[in-house]
Amino acid sequence: MTRADEQVRAAVEASFLVELPAPVLDRLLTGATRVDVPAGARLYREGDREQWALLVAGLARVYMRSPTGRQVTVRYVRPGGVLGVATMVGGPAPVSVAAVLPSSLLMLASGDVGQLVESDPRTGWALVRELDRRLYETLEELAGNAFGTVKQRLARHLLDLAVASPPAPRLIAHVTHQELADATGSVREVVQRVLRELSRDGLVATTPTSVVVRDPDGLLAAAWRR
Question: Are strands 210-213 and 96-99 parallel, antiparallel or unpaired?
């Protein structure tokens, strides 16, 4: 088995797909296409009808955009996450998806979701459980914005700013310490102390006008969790 095959197997085993009956899973995987994308690549745009896609490697971000261009993250997707489930059921959603790191996706042959559900009640129940998990993930995001510590809010805000910037070899949040304090409801001295902690942990590197995200996955882990 090649490394690519091992990655796909590990991603499948980490996803809700393992809850599906074997014939349904085989149907999804048969004819599936692997796609590699660079950091910053737009995977889906707002209003697109997504195809199911299993993230095999990398990190992706699901976000919404306001009429003025501001962005808010709805979900970060790690290997084992499946994109497009909600839109395949409810139709196009007002979200976009972009790769935070160089990523690899397996585009699944989902076809008619209604037929998949009708083929076996276990498929429908697995889909319900996955949608339920997505709902709670969204609630976690809302709660993080409301209840997270300064460090947790700062970690999330840095990720949001960095991934919203034009693609570059590195993820960079172009922001001053005062702007970070304003955005997180804190003061500059506290923000500077937290940035020193994050820098000491190898997650970021700072300048007076920017923050380089050295470890996006680690920074995400430092963000708010209930």
Answer: unpaired
Let me know whether 141 and 172 are in one domain: no
Q: Is 219 in contact with 160 (CB distance < 8 Å)?
A: no
Q: Rounded to an integer, what distance in angstroms lies between the CA atom of residue 15 and that of residue 191?
A: 36
Are 117 and 170 members of one domain? no
Same-domain pairing of 129 and 155: no
pTM flag (> 0.85) = no
Residues 73, 13 share a domain: yes
CA distance 200 to 99: 26
Is residue 86 packed enough to be buried (19+ CB in 10 Å), middle (13-18) or exposed (0-12)? middle
Backbone angles phi, psi at 110, to 5 degrees: -75, -35
Residues of the chain with pLDDT under 50: none
Rounded Cα gap, residues 124 and 119, in angstroms:
9
CB 203 within 8 A of CB 215: yes
- The CATH number of the domain holding residue 133 is 2.60.120.10
> Which among 4, 119, 19, 136 is positioned nearest to 57, based on CA atoms?
4
**Which stretches within the chain are classed as H helix?**
3-14, 22-29, 85-90, 113-119, 121-147, 150-164, 177-184, 188-200, 216-222
